[in-house]
Amino acid sequence: MAEQENNLPKGWQSKTLGEVFTIERGGSPRPIEDFITSDSKGINWIKIGDTKNATKYIYETAEKIKPEGAKRSRMVYEGDFLLSNSMSFGRPYIMKTSGCIHDGWLVIRNNENIDNDYLYHILSSNYLYQQFSNLAKGSTVKNLNIEAVKKAVIRFPSIEKQRAIVLKVEELLSELESTKNTLLLVQDQLKVFRSSTLKFAFEGRFTNNNVPSNGLPKDWKQVKLGELANAVDPQPSHRTPPIDPEGIPYASIKDFDSELDKIDLTSARKVSPSVLKEHISRYTLQKGDFVIGKIGTIGKPVRIVLPQNYCLSANIVLIQPRKIDPTFLFYFFQSNIIEKAFSSGANSTTQAAFGIQKVRELVINLPSPEEQKKIVIEIENRISVAEKIGEDVKTSLKQLETLKQSVLKKAFEGKLVNEN
What we know:
Blueprint: E1 13-16, H1 17-20, E2 23-25, E3 36-37, E4 43-46, E5 57-58, E6 64-65, H2 67-70, E7 74-76, E8 81-84, E9 92-95, E10 99-101, E11 105-108, H3 116-123, H4 126-135, H5 146-151, E12 153-156, H6 159-202, E13 221-224, E14 229-232, E15 248-251, E16 256-257, E17 262-263, E18 269-271, H7 273-280, E19 290-295, E20 297-303, E21 311-312, E22 316-321, H8 326-332, H9 336-345, E23 347-348, E24 352-353, H10 356-361, E25 363-366, H11 369-412
Parallel strand pairs: 4-10, 5-9, 15-21
Antiparallel strand pairs: 1-12, 2-11, 3-6, 4-6, 7-10, 8-9, 8-11, 13-25, 14-22, 15-18, 16-17, 19-20, 19-22, 23-24
């Protein structure tokens, strides 16, 4: 394959987006509420939220805008591209309808010399994303403006060659997508496996041969949590202490990751050390203790870490197993038995809540101490295998994204389709 001095294949061009396309910013009439209508004859009003379930195309939108509002907005048409001006979204959409866009969008106007699917794949590639990232403004959240987008460079051959490249790209990406869907299905099946493992464990099916179909083994008991563990409200006043930038972490449910069983205090609110002294006077953390959410996020147990150099906030309940195997109780709180209890007992006004007294009334399926230990071993043997498979699946999914970007890189370097 012959290449020119600029490292482009013969017949290819390298130009900025601004040289090839008309690029404009959306515009919202003010106040926008005066122009929104439910009239189906109105004009599509396209917001960032309308792309929540979109993959590539934007079709009709539920929300419309009045014609007089459209005159003060920015119209887009079928074939135009929309790009969020926030780098956190980072993906393009092709219009399959017409409508108005607000000022969170940038529009790249259709150009008959560039195949739309070819441009879509370029805009979806790290090749363009890295350029946008370097050109975008902002420290915490980077934003694109028209001038930045105009400076980004694309490479393209003739329209016929573009279409040949698109066919090859989509053939390869279709294969990768099929593999991805299979891996996502495996992830779903692993979740079902985990749920079933916990269900069978706490029905006694791992340690008993003759379990009634509608009950528990005859030597098991059903005991209220309050008889087996302390359920502590860490901040009974429910008044959040003032911020102390030099203080100690005041851990909220948002600082606990139930999927990883991990606590991360790096972004936790900081409060005065005197708050910790007051908390220590009421509860002492011990190995095996765990927390659950009681407001907004209900349940989702996470084991605490020691030493006790942080406080627990008012949206958490601290569970301290004292007359039950801590790991047995921790897994029981991950089971659908507890999830159903939380779901049926949660009060909801603006957000769900589950009070401390209800936590203490939760019913625990309780075998003997020896059987509790056997059940924990059975659970962990099964879950460890599932977790290993899950890690392999995550690794494979990351590799698929790398392969996708490799396909796109070759495509825009002219190495995917024979140039002869």
